[in-house]
């Protein structure tokens, strides 16, 4: 079943830290269907099955390799084109890497402004839905 068939956009939160996942979910509020995942392998399988409107990944967790998730999404024909928003640290780095190498649709630095984050999520979900209708 394609989860975009619901009336609310679906956002997948890829985050190892439960507290930050909760902060993101609360920031998004009730206007979105939220799917929480912790790592790349679990996430790839869910994305292939569900095709959400947006994937939000935190690239700042030491040792975590979500930038590989984004790269995998970009090379997988079934996942290519999914909208992505990533978090990096205040220096623009993601786990020791430059975050823009992963070519996400949007990059946020921590700390972030919740209202700006919500606006960008709404914009990207709108673009995703427009692409689906085309």
Secondary-structure topology with pairs:
Blueprint: E1 10-14, H1 18-28, E2 33-37, H2 40-50, E3 54-58, H3 66-75, E4 83-88, E5 93-94, E6 97-98, E7 106-109, H4 114-133
Helical fraction: 25-40%
How many whole angstroms does the radius of gyration measure? Answer: 14 Å
> Which stretches are poorly predicted, pLDDT < 50 over at least 5 residues?
1-5, 92-101
CATH topology: Rossmann fold
What class do helices, strands and sheet pairing give? alpha/beta
- Secondary structure tally, helices: 4
- Supply the CATH superfamily name: Response regulator
Query: Which term fits the overall shape?
Result: globular
| CA distance, first residue to last residue | 19 Å
CATH architecture verdict: 3-Layer(aba) Sandwich
Task: Fill in the keyword field for this structure.
4 helices; 7 strands; single chain; 134 residues; five-stranded parallel beta sheet; two-stranded antiparallel sheet; globular; disordered N terminus; Rossmann fold; alpha/beta
């Amino acid at each position: 079943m394609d989860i975009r068939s619901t009336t609310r956009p679906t956002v997948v939160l890829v985050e190892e830290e439960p507290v930050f996942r909760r902060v993101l979910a609360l920031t998004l509020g009730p206007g979105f269907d939220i799917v929480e995942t912790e790592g790349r392998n679990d996430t790839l399988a869910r994305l292939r099955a569900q095709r959400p409107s947006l994937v939000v990944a935190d690239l700042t967790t030491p040792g975590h390799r979500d930038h590989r998730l984004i790269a995998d999404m970009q090379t997988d024909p079934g996942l290519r084109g999914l909208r992505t928003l990533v978090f990096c640290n205040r220096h623009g780095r993601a786990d020791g890497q430059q975050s823009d190498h992963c070519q996400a649709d949007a990059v946020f630095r921590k700390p972030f402004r919740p209202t700006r984050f919500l606006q960008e999520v709404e914009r990207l979900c709108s673009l995703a839905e427009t692409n689906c209708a085309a």
